[in-house]
Write a structure and sequence with these properties.
Elements (H helix, E strand, L loop, with lengths): L1 H21 L26 H9 L3 E5 L18 E6 L7 H12 L3 E6 L6 H5 L5 H8 L2 E4 H7 L4 H6 L6 E12 L12 E7 L4 E4 L7 E6 L5 E8 L2 E6 L15 H12 L5 E5 L11 H6 L1 H21 L14 H15 L2 H20 L8 H6 L5 H15 L6 H15 L1
Parallel strand pairs: 1-11, 2-3, 2-11, 3-10
Antiparallel strand pairs: 4-7, 5-6, 5-8, 8-9, 9-10
Helix pairs in contact: 1-10, 12-14, 12-15
Length: 426
């Protein structure tokens, strides 16, 4: 019974250690080593869950879009116009060529595309993706972007200017703040004096290249560099808005300065009656087939875990032992002991010493038979004995001389000779 209690205690300790190491408070596996992505379900700093919940609380329908743009027009309950789609770059999943034409038609029908691109700031999730894919940004917005360094090179500025714009990619000790300030009064900046973006790595300013057809309006600039960071352009009956700050509406930045008010103004100006705000989660790694909130709120998950845990405890308590069974080996036989002792003595005892001891015991037995009191070898008595062969006696004398001189003696042949002479003199 005591052994079972110890087993149960150790099993519960192992289970507690597993939960502490691999299970988060949210219920999923511990992914602290993974950089969180900007999705509407992410509650950590890089996510949009704060903006998503806030909009829903204000009565504005918010949707986590987990399908590609081919099906954006088929979203259930979505009106044909008056909607806002928030796309964050860089994305985890690439954009398919077939997505851009349905998205083009959807925006032209009277909807707004808000592209939040980490150009002039560098949050950790953007740095881990090696920066914004300019081809995706160009296909989504129809605008070309370039760094200040590229623009300086294009207009042949001095080498000093180029070197001063070099990008340092070392991580910052604390997030660096960049400030967005409006260029002129605009509905987006009602009650907004500035907005703050956060960079975990050093960043460089970008600028937009005016397209050949149409125009783009720079709504705001970065206070530290004077370069534009918020642009807008009409697109059919809809509109495209591009932010050069990718962190401006994330959980950790939404409450800074006028960030939340800026988002509220953009939503108020572009979302019509019955419209919705869609967050592009599909290209950030969340597919329609996987919903972590539904997965961890499903009762069947915990019933299954309870059954598995119960079976595991039954197996631990019923089929395992902490104490290793004692193996009782049979005691060695006499012959094995003699063989082991002989092998040991044969390895450590010189041959000439063993030969002298064998001859000494033999001479003692012969002296007892001859009733001699002397301790020297009984050579005369053995020579007169009728059953002792002279050749055996001569060989015995030679081996005796070799043993006394510490020379090599064949122990096996000596032992057999002594046995034969013992029988002859018995």
């Amino acid at each position: 019974m005591k052994e079972r209690a110890v087993t149960l205690f150790c099993a519960l300790g192992a289970l507690t250690l597993f939960i502490a190491m691999f299970v988060r408070r949210e219920g999923g596996a511990d992914t602290r080593n993974d950089i969180p992505r900007p999705t509407s379900v992410e509650r950590r700093g890089n996510g949009y869950n704060a903006a998503f919940a806030w909009l829903n609380a204000e009565g504005i329908r918010s949707i986590s879009l987990r399908e590609r743009f081919e099906r954006i027009a088929a979203v259930k309950g979505l009106p044909a116009s008056g909607n806002l789609l928030v796309v964050t770059l860089p994305a985890v999943g690439g954009f398919n060529t077939g997505e851009f034409l349905p998205l083009d038609r959807w925006v032209r029908a009277g909807n707004t595309l808000l592209v939040v691109a980490a150009l002039s700031d560098t949050p950790d999730w953007a740095f881990s993706s090696s920066g914004v894919g300019l081809s995706d940004l160009n296909l989504l917005t129809g605008l070309d972007f370039e760094t200040i360094e590229s623009r300086a090179r294009r207009i042949n500025k001095s080498r000093a200017s180029l070197e001063s714009a070099a990008l340092d990619l070392h991580a910052l000790a604390a997030p660096r703040r960049s400030t967005l300030v409006p260029n002129r009064p605009h509905p987006y900046f009602r009650s907004v004096a500035e907005a703050i973006a956060l960079s975990d790595y050093a960043s460089q300013p970008w600028t937009v290249k005016v397209p050949y057809q149409g125009f783009v309006l720079a709504l705001a600039r970065q206070r530290e560099t004077g370069e534009g960071v918020l642009w807008t352009r009409p697109f059919g009956a809809g509109r495209i808005v591009v932010s050069g700050f990718g962190s401006i509406f994330t959980n950790r930045a939404l409450a800074l300065a006028g960030n939340g008010q800026l988002l509220a103004n953009i939503v108020a100006a572009n979302v019509g009656e019955g419209g919705a705000v869609l967050f592009d989660d599909a290209h950030q790694g969340l597919g329609a087939a996987y919903d972590p909130q539904k997965f961890y709120s499903d009762r069947r998950l915990y019933v299954t875990l309870g059954i598995v845990l119960g079976l595991w405890l039954v197996w631990v308590l019923g089929s395992t032992r902490l104490r290793v069974p004692v193996v009782r080996s049979a005691p060695p036989r006499e012959a094995e002991l003699v063989r082991a002792s002989g092998g040991f003595l044969a390895r450590v005892l010189p041959r000439h010493a063993a030969a002298r001891r064998l001859l000494g015991h033999f001479f003692s037995r012969v002296n007892e038979r001859a009733r001699r009191r002397a301790a020297d070898p009984p050579w005369e008595w053995l020579a007169r004995h009728p059953r002792v062969a002279p050749a055996d006696l001569a060989r015995l004398k030679d081996w005796y001389a070799d043993a006394c001189a510490a020379r090599r003696v064949p122990l096996g042949a000596l032992y057999n000779l002594i046995l034969r002479m013992d029988k002859a003199t018995a």
